[in-house]
Write the structure tokens for this entry.
Amino acid sequence: MTPFQKRRIAASGLGDIQSKVLSRERLTREDGLTLYGHPDLVAVGALANHVRERRHDRAAYYIVNQHINHTNICVAGCKFCAFYRTKRQPGAYVLSPADVEARMREHIDEPIREIHMVGGVNPDLPFSYYIDLIRTMKRVRPEVHVKAFTMVEIAAMAENFGMSAEQVLVRLRDAGLGSIPGGGAEILTDHAHQVLFKGKIDHNAWIEIAKTAHRAGLRSNATMLYGHVETVEERLDHMLLLREAQDETDGFMAFIPLAFHPENTRLSHLSKPSAMEDLRQLAVGRLMLDNFPHIKAYWIMMTPRVAQAGLHFGADDLDGTVVTEEIFHRAGAESPQHVARQRLIRLIEEADRVPVERDSLYNTVAAPAAPPPGPFPRVRLPERDDTAPALGTL
């Protein structure tokens, strides 16, 4: 951080927080409230960018991955979800292991390193179905990392099949499961649970299953769905719960803020978060979650251009090529469903960052030589709509 930046941030009224950040002192809940309410987004972003560069310098990570949503049949009934169907509704589906294999073989010539699989809470599926899915994926691509089944899905399996969460996780791990995605956390508070998703596990259960997964040797991510009925206080409570759990198990890899898309949901009267709100959430997440290695700007939810700007507001990861994602697009996400590897690299380089291909556990796959730094970042603060053409098709 340059002397000019330090003076500007101090002049904005964030001097006390800046001192904590520079000395690596943990921020408090009150500090978080200040960051959410502070009128100077650029100053907040500069603090987050300092932490981001202290951890990762100019590196920005991406992965070549494929998303497969194995079923949209779900009994949870979440108000924010446009993806789920009851089993009698038109459009309800369950992919068989053969269907999953077919989807994978459609992209067999692409260097996919990760299969990301999540779906609805479908009580009609036997436990053998999930084992067969994992074994199918590992047979088709033995080297692929399978990241599958949220904490919510694990809890449902435990209940439906009379097992503990640990027993479920160990059996899935032994079949080839590599890690757990971060979905289903939503907002980890009683209020949000009762209003939006009382058919799913509450925050205590979500956190406990995450810690159980970590103890079983399975790393995970953690999401936060924001921009609906929650307050900024609830966002902070959510992040503080995650921070506390990370202190205990050190099993979370990345924090992923997910901007709520109200289209086609029972909350369609709400407005979706603005690009500025997206950037602020990335920045506050980076500053509050001092024990999380990575902050992801998930371009599917934010659009590629907003995610690109997020690389200067605390984020160090754009996720990946994301072939065949359905959940967020059913809710109105307008970003292209398949961003090719070269376009991800271009987005990163335009932001004056160094693209680094990674695997699911953030091991480096390819790190091109860094271009010479420019005098100023070439990123532009975007409008919400992303008009850049997508490369590739679904």
About this structure: The longest strand covers residues 219-226. The radius of gyration is 20 Å. DSSP finds 15 helices and eleven strands in the chain. Confidence is low (pLDDT under 50) at residues 325-337, 371-394.
